[in-house]
Amino acid sequence: MYTKQALRDLGVGAADFTAAQKEALDRDGFYIVPDVLSPDQCRAMAEAFEALHASEAERGGHEVHVEPGARRVSNIFNKSDAFDACLELGPVLAASHYLLGEFKLHGANLRDPNKGYGHQQYHADVPKFFPDDWWVLNAIVLFDDMTLENGPTRVVPGSHHWAPINIPVINQGDWEPTELSEEDKARLPADLNAPYPNEVYVTARAGSVVIINSSLWHSGTLKKDDAHRRVCHLTYTRRDLPQQLIQVDYLTRELYDRMSPAHRFLLEIEPGASGDGVKRPPKRDHAGWWN
User: Fold this and answer.
1) Which fold has domain 3-274?
2) What are the tens digits of pLDDT across the range 115-166?
3) In terms of pTM, does the model score above 0.90?
4) Which of 17, 27, 183, 208 is most exposed, with the fewest beta carbons within 10 Å of its own?
């Protein structure tokens, strides 16, 4: 099995990644695809989120990161089949193939910030060793509307072409920052919390997917109201890089049995996946997060 074969088996085709979307991903580092999930799918996934979070409460997300001020759930595919459709989102899989080449699931985390929380400093999720060294694609799958009042993601279009900024330590691997050019130094914000010139607050309807090159400068913003902003941060990475959650380490028989060979390949859950000879950079001790 290889990526092109897996995507063919899952029915991913040319219509899932248009020329306009390719241009937006290259130029801006993000774009929005509306109506990827149906209202019924959004409702079912939101209800599954609530059930899982009710059982885990403050431990929610513990396999990856417990975030004060936000409700989180991780390791979602082993806990419920309600999110399986997220593994078959053609626009996400097609964009990941374009950006990353041979790729696999990196992580899948549910998140809903609480009122008065959710603000983050500007950051890039991952480093890079050279200008188009892309490591991760992040797809924000919306179960609810993302509005200006409920803590939308903010992004700086085109910043994926700039030097990485404020990368969480957990994501740095064996990367070490290099001396910045004068141009990059001039771009660095004096305050990572403050607004940045030409930033965009991303708003979209439930069922939409926001596709982001994870080298893009971005952050969460303050949630001002009580409206839910439940999302799945679905991330894919190159096959030579480590998963955020090592899927085979958490694998249940139920998940394995209901996945097709293509799904198993993209999840990297076949026996022996952890001993495939791929050199993976070590992760460092951290107090940060991915999404």
Assistant:
1) Jelly Rolls (2.60.120)
2) 999 999 999 999 999 999 999 999 999 999 999 999 999 999 999 999 999 9
3) yes
4) 183
